[in-house]
Amino acid sequence: MKIIECPRDAMQGKDEFIDTAIKAAYINQLLNIGFDTVDFGSFVSPKAIPQMRDTAELLDLLDLFRSRSKLLAIIANTRGASDALHFEEIDYLGFPLSLSETFQQKNTNKSIAEALETVEDIQNLCETKGKELVIYLSMGFGNPYGEAYNGELVAEFVNKLNAIGIRTIALSDTIGAASPALISSVFQLNVETYPQIEFGAHFHSRPDKVEEKILAGIQGGCRRFDGAIQGHGGCPFATDELVGNVATEKVIEIIESQGFTLGLNMEEFHEAEKLAQFVFQ
């Protein structure tokens, strides 16, 4: 069972710029906890996401020698991928691919067809550099734009990504609309069909719906969950202001209640919780 902590997702929507030294102190604390991966930054246009303009600078301030956690950076095009691949410290690149044509245009200014071509180009770059490409399949459990959505569509996208050689796919409940039954069935179908692919869950949710979504993911065979301490960040397109990232502390509680051992240093986790109150004040 893997937990991916996402300070990048938590920070990127804040209007006020968080000082680079503060970001580094927070992420260094997260690196002490023992998460499988920390989604720490992104190589995208500073105009699109000003909060992430210091990602390269941030890398110089991270203490990776004592940490077992891997680093993930989000990219949205081949230029961003090329920039990220210059850094040996980064293990994973994450690319947002959407089942929704409308959302793909909003998110990366590309059509789905163009985005798939970009995915293939980036996958080739990653293979030459020994990195792994993680695809975040947004609108993975529903579509608010009136476009077609069903479980077969998800499987169709997964099949295309499998053909390209993608081995990690995070199914994303972008607007927090997924029902437990849908979550369980979508994961079960794809986990059973593509055992060579690691499927993760990037859920957005109202706080009172987190438990049922995590349990449904586990039931469907998901063993990789994203979270953000205290539930900071989330999707600006959600119509419910209570919908945001799932709180990592809640994810840990739910997963451990099901008998899984995560091996996290909870003393360090509680220190990170204290620091988060300062970072996100």
UniProtKB/TrEMBL annotation:
SUPFAM superfamilies per the UniProt record, alphabetical: Aldolase
Swiss-Prot/TrEMBL GO biological process terms: ketone body biosynthetic process; L-leucine catabolic process
Xref: Pfam families: HMGL-like (PF00682)
Superkingdom of source: Bacteria
Record keywords: Lyase, Metal-binding
Classification via PROSITE patterns: PYR_CT
Keyword Heme: no
Record-linked InterPro entries: Aldolase_TIM, HMGL, PYR_CT
Keyword Cytoplasm recorded: no
Family under the similarity heading: Belongs to the HMG-CoA lyase family.
Name of the protein in its database record: Hydroxymethylglutaryl-CoA lyase
Gene: mvaB
